[in-house]
Amino acid sequence: MFCSKCGHEIAQGAVFCQDCGSEVRHKSGIDASTLPIDQGGSLGQSITAKRRKLSTVLIVVVALLAVVAVLALALINNTSKGVTPKESVNDYTWEELSQISAEIAKSGDGPAAVDIAKKFNLVTPEGRLDGNQCKTITCEDGSQFDVQIAGFIHDDRPGGGKAGITFIFKDPIFYSYINWTNADEAYADENGVYGDVVNLDANYENLGGWTSSELRRRINDEGLGFLPSDMESVMVPVLKKTNSIKGSNSSSAVQIDSDLLWLYSLVELAGDSPILDGDNSALSYYNEVLNAEGSQYQLFADMDVRQSGDNDILAKGGEWFTRSLMPFTSYERDGGVLVGPDTVSSSERPLKIDLYYSVSDAGNPSARFAFPTSWGGIVPGFCI
Questions:
Q1: Cα–Cα distance between 118 and 318 in angstroms, integer?
Q2: Is the separation of the CB atoms in 229 and 95 below 8 Å?
Q3: What are the mean pLDDT values of the chain's consecutive 10-residue runs (384 residues total)?
Q4: How far apart are CA 120 and CA 90, in angstroms?
Q5: pTM for the structure as a whole
Q6: Which residues, 6+ apart, have CB-to-CB distance to 346 below 8 Å?
């Protein structure tokens, strides 16, 4: 019989090893001499080796879990990784475009945003927008419209950060008198224009501008219900700067509104305003007020849209409205004023009215001025 600790022979029936003093244990009648002996040292060393092996396995498992966690976090932070690049904007779902937009929004600057857009074919190979980056939508009533990408990381979100992609409708979603409470549908039919008639304000005037307009309220209420649900579900509100105060001659009059749908401003379409410069320096505040309403989108910059001159990218088959009021301007008339097919006497309406910039049918962004009785297209923008 041998000691299980030191391996020396011990006498039969001994309780302790005479060499190392270890207690000799006998279990269930099993002769200890028949148990295997670790020839390299002791059974304790064998057990230690097994524990080390188990620890190594646990370390490997923990490391694999850490790798999985890192990959999951990367997927969350770079949400478009699961989107396969497609040939055109129209081939993506709105959910896929929303994922790409989230990646663009995190890119931090214009060149990085355009690089991501290139990867997903949202721009030309040169990184430009030329008006062909369109997606067709089918609205709840079955009508179809195309929307164009207007720019990337351009608009600020109310809670901070940028919206990744901004769109503009290629055509008006409806037509409206800019402000006429008693519209005559027969007049609209006779002149070949159709759609809802919407008042910009509750009175016969443009006072209060875009911020307090009935048109703003309606397109953000009823207009949203008109859009396809998959598109509406990924739209995000953004902050838009607008001169909505009558008699403003300073950029301090510009207000900030949060909207899901909005009209474009003059500067967003045509860039910084050179209007009334030089010899007209006494009215140089025009530039200050108009230019405070945002900055030009990439689509219109790439297509060389300017304050004056026709441009096909803005030609939409008829006059359409911006949200920009002419700074410190009102229009007065005595006597009756023609409103559509009817005449409204001066006693029934204010004599002073503010004028909106509107885009001509040939695409000139500052060639037309919209009176409260003007008829034109409603061409919203939105972000995802």
A1: 33
A2: no
A3: 73 74 60 47 54 69 66 50 92 98 92 96 98 96 96 96 97 75 45 39 57 80 86 97 72 88 95 62 72 96 92 93 75 40 40 71 84 80 98
A4: 12
A5: 0.70
A6: 333, 334, 335, 336, 337
